[in-house]
């Protein structure tokens, strides 16, 4: 039942956003009672976070697991390390664009709650910060504030993928691969010692 509720919630939040989705609609789509939705998740906000954050956290865990498998040796340059994450994150955002936009809308609505969704999103970034701290120096990265560096990378990729149409409206759009290489070049050029 919990799986059915989460699947229904994810679909509806992606289609209608947080404010446009009712727990009643989620229950109907999952073919359960609305009371069961509340029994399992407590609140609509908790259900939203479970439906959305699970996917994001799974992405970060999978990326970190790949790195932890000993495949870290494949990253022989700062560009390789940063670009592998930029590409993976862009792919994740592209495949989950509607749910990510819904999450951003939810975050905007919940901005007064400091224990809300931002805490979950930021928590998953700690592993990426540790990777940059651990592996960066041997690749020539000079990172004085890994929290800021990781969030700058996330922000650039997030902005590009979610607002690509807006940024290239009326002008020739470069290929996605080229845009991601430019982001990587910008990040690495700003972090590599000269």
Automatic annotation (TrEMBL):
InterPro entries: Homeodomain-like_sf (IPR009057), HTH-type_TetR-like_transc_reg (IPR050109), HTH_TetR (IPR001647). Keywords: DNA-binding, Transcription, Transcription regulation. PROSITE patterns: HTH_TETR_2. Residues 22-41 bind DNA. Residues 1-59 form the HTH tetR-type domain. Pfam families: TetR_N (PF00440). It comes from the Bacteria. The keyword Nucleotide-binding does not apply. PANTHER family: HTH-TYPE TRANSCRIPTIONAL REGULATOR BETI, HTH-TYPE TRANSCRIPTIONAL REGULATOR RUTR. This is TetR/AcrR family transcriptional regulator. It comes from Sporichthya brevicatena.
């Amino acid at each position: 039942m919990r799986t059915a509720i989460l699947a229904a919630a994810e679909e509806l939040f992606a289609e209608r956003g947080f404010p446009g989705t009712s727990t009643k609609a989620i229950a109907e789509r999952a073919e359960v009672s609305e009371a069961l939705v509340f029994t399992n998740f407590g609140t609509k906000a908790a259900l939203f976070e479970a439906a959305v954050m699970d996917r994001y956290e799974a992405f970060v865990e999978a990326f970190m697991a790949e790195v932890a498998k000993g495949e870290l040796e494949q990253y022989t340059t700062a560009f390789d390390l940063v670009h592998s994450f930029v590409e993976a994150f862009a792919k994740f955002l592209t495949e989950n664009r509607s749910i990510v936009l819904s999450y951003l809308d939810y975050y905007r609505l919940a901005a007064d709650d400091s224990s809300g969704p931002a805490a979950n999103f930021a928590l998953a970034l700690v592993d990426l910060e540790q990777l940059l701290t651990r592996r960066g120096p041997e690749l020539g990265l000079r990172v004085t504030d890994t929290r800021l560096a990781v969030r700058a990378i996330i922000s650039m990729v997030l902005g590009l993928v979610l607002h690509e149409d807006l940024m290239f409206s009326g002008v020739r759009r470069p290929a996605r691969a080229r845009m991601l290489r430019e982001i990587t070049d910008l990040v690495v050029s700003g972090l590599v010692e000269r």
